[in-house]
Amino acid sequence: MKGFVPTPDFVVDRMVERLFRDRRPSSRSTILDPGCGEGAFVRGILRWRDRNGGPLPRIVGVESDSRRRRRAEREFGGIPEIQIRNADFLADPCDESFDFVVGNPPYVSILELSETEKQLYRTRFSTARGRFDLYLLFFERALRLLNDGGRLVFITPEKFLYVDAASPLRSLLSRFDVEEIDLVDETIFEPLLTYPTVTTVSRRQYSGRTKVIRRNGAIKYIALCGDGQSWMPLIAGESQSRPDSTLGDFCRRVSAGVATGADAVFVLRNEKIDDSLKPFAYPTIAGRELGDGNPRLAAQCSMLVPYSGDGRLIHESKLGSLGFYLRQEGIAQKLVARTCVRRKPWYAFHETPPLRDILNPKILCKDIVASPRFWIDRSGRIVPRHSVYYIVPRNPAVVDDLCEFLNSDLSTAWLRANCQRAAGDFLRLQSRILSRLPIPAEIAARLNSGTDTFQAISENKALDQASRLGASGALDLIR
């Protein structure tokens, strides 16, 4: 099975202890390791039996990789209670059920699957939705094979607790008794960084109480929601009630910056831009340029943009000096080699830049941060690169109030509780998370007040202009 990551013995032993906590196995008990590799969890069960005594239960290990399977068979072949099967746990049939399931499912992103595999899994598993990972499907199949009263202990990435793609799994798990969620040390799989989580689940009605162990050792008890929503706010101690207002309510756009697919071509140092190219040049900033050392957002580079202000790609015949630059030997070859050219003109960006939104006063932030921090682009001229997120208020007049709130302790605490983690415990900011940021009522009132004033001024300007154009013009402008 691709995505195999060996589990350290000390982690295996902790997991086996939880598997058998208050439920000692008998000789009639059955145990499944659905991705057993070379047998780390089988050895862990044998060590537990040596420490605690008692009979050895029947153990079934399933492994699709022939090399790892053979090694496990050689090690355990003389023990009649242990069977190592050559099978694909997600694809091959299984006509038995088990009292215990333990393991480390493979972590395989949907991006690594063939179209045939994606279709097969989407047909067979309710958890194969969106940008799913195989470990989500392992949860579903293993729970199907678990006997009533049985227990499952898996170590997986923590992302299933909050990503949208895992919403079906969270709904499924809520039908069982999720006994414990242990956010274990992120270094145990070094050099990989997975933010691992050990989850203990029993096939019985949910008790309404889940023990959560944080990475700092803090312990708390929570009641998980069953509607598929993220569990991280609960783990962080936040209410699950829906806020009256969110950041998205006050913004025309919250998005990652522009992806050209060839920044080496389109992004140049300002001093290297010929005067003939300046009509196409916009100041641009990357995430690394956002910091205390650049409080005024001074852009050292500019982005050459082959799009008009309304976001339409300029026809090749009208590119002029920009077209001459892009057709130069070596530059054109780089552009043509991009994957986006299969569906777009050779000089287009990887993603069409929504310039109508971008070219407005806006708030900027890095995509990956130790702690969230936000800056204001008052000029509205900066075109952020893909490592920067930009937030465009519906009303430019509220940009200061909005940025002040985004830099508040309240906003920071919420983002820490809801954002995905990157290496070094950094936060990964994403548009869908930022858009959901709750806006307190008093802040919302200030923003709404500014918006009402802005709309009134805009409508008055439109009416003044319309009076000079006649009734039909007035109607068009107000619309």
Protein traits:
479 residues, Rossmann fold, Adenine-n6-DNA-methyltransferase TaqI, Chain A, domain 2, four-stranded antiparallel sheet
Give structural notes:
By secondary structure, the protein is α/β, with parallel strands linked by helices. The protein has three domains: 9-235, Rossmann fold (3-Layer(aba) Sandwich), CATH 3.40.50; 247-439, Adenine-n6-DNA-methyltransferase TaqI, Chain A, domain 2; 442-479. It is built from 16 helices and 20 strands. It has helices spanning 9-19, 40-52, 66-76, 115-124, 134-144, 167-173, 232-235, 263-266, 321-326, 331-336, 355-358, 399-406, 409-418, 431-435, 441-469, 471-478; strands spanning 30-33, 58-63, 82-86, 98-103, 146-157, 177-183, 196-202, 210-213, 219-222, 251-256, 267-269, 281-285, 301-304, 362-366, 368-369, 375-377, 383-384, 388-393, 420-421, 427-428. The chain has a nine-stranded mixed beta sheet with strand order 3-2-1-4-5-7-6-8-9. It has a four-stranded antiparallel beta sheet with strand order 10-18-14-16. The protein has a four-stranded mixed beta sheet with strand order 11-13-12-17. Helix 3 (66-76) links the parallel strand 2 and strand 3 (82-86). Helix 1 (9-19) crosses helix 2 (40-52) and helix 15 (441-469) runs antiparallel to helix 16. The N and C termini lie far apart (58 Å). Mean pLDDT is 89; it is low at 452-463 and 465-479.
